Amino acid sequence: MHELKMTLDEIETFLCIAQLGSFTEASRRLGRSQPAISRRIHQLEESLGAPLFERLGRRVSLTEAGETLLPHAEMALAAARDGERAIRDLIDVGGSQVLKLAIVATLADSHLVDALRAFEAQFSEASVELTTATSREVSALVRNGEASLGLRYFEECDPALESKPLGAEKLYLVVSARHPVRSQRLRGLRKLEGERWLGFPPERGQSDSLGHLLERTLMKAGISEARITRVDSLTAQKRLVEAGLGVAFMPRSSVEEELQIGSLRAIEIQGMRLEQPVVGVCRRGGHESPLAADFLKLLMEFKPVLLPAPERSDRARVGP
């Protein structure tokens, strides 16, 4: 019988490449040479007897075998990291501990910063390791145990993760400074019927995201044949809007600098509450980090200040 041997280094390398879609990017993230990264994957593929990645130029995608291995590799690495954290929490009681937190980058510009300051003041012996990523990447970091707690937009549908609502960010219609519509408020979206809309691609495995809800919001507004361009980068969306190549829904916190210098304008739509919910995500059945629990409790206390409380009314909900 063939003896299967998978090391944690091989699993970590596999997951990093799967997340980033590149051997080169994975070598940078892991701090190892690209030949070393390739060697690990070759050894893993030899051990499993199946190719895990399909090479497409400089990018790679998972093969059917890779897709099959992915959830098991995530659980294995997360379990190993859980065990390490559990031991550290056991022996470091009262000592210096680390909270590994993954958040969507735009949330770093919100009142979450105040919550972080309060946390560090309350737990002076603790330190925070902060990673910024997209919502999808935040979930992946929590799923594989690289982060104890994640903060992302929209509830995570993966049953391996638990979502805890924290509030919502209001969204505005964002246009270029030179856009012909000069009003700060509009009664609806019909004046923008011929516009090109910039939106995120639908997030795979999620039922609620900007990619899924933008069309519903436009249809509800009576715009049934909207031109939508998918752009998987908030920065790229902002630059395109600044250039007059489209309009988009964005949280004010993500365009505050552009609004201040006057390269973008935010328009509020009367009668529509456009918002994206913010949730905390953690692993179901994983090690419960005391620091993560304390930080999440503090966030819940900050909830009325952290994000605008949703009103009880009919509203369209949009978010990346």
Q: What's the CATH superfamily of the largest domain, by name?
A: Periplasmic binding protein-like II
What is the helix/strand order?
A: HHHEEHEHEHEEEEHEHEHEEH
Largest sheet: 8 strands, mixed
- Rg calc: 22 Å
Q: Structurally, how many domains make up the residues?
A: 3
CATH level 1 name of the largest domain: Alpha Beta
End-to-end separation in angstroms reads 48 Å
Low-confidence stretches: 308-320
Shape: globular
Q: Which class of secondary structure composition applies to the elements?
A: alpha/beta
What share of residues is helical?
A: 25-40%
**How many strand elements?**
12
Mean pLDDT equals 84
The helix tally amounts to 10
CATH architecture of the largest domain: 3-Layer(aba) Sandwich
- State which percent range the strand residues make up: 15-25%
As for the CATH topology of the largest domain, it is D-Maltodextrin-Binding Protein, domain 2
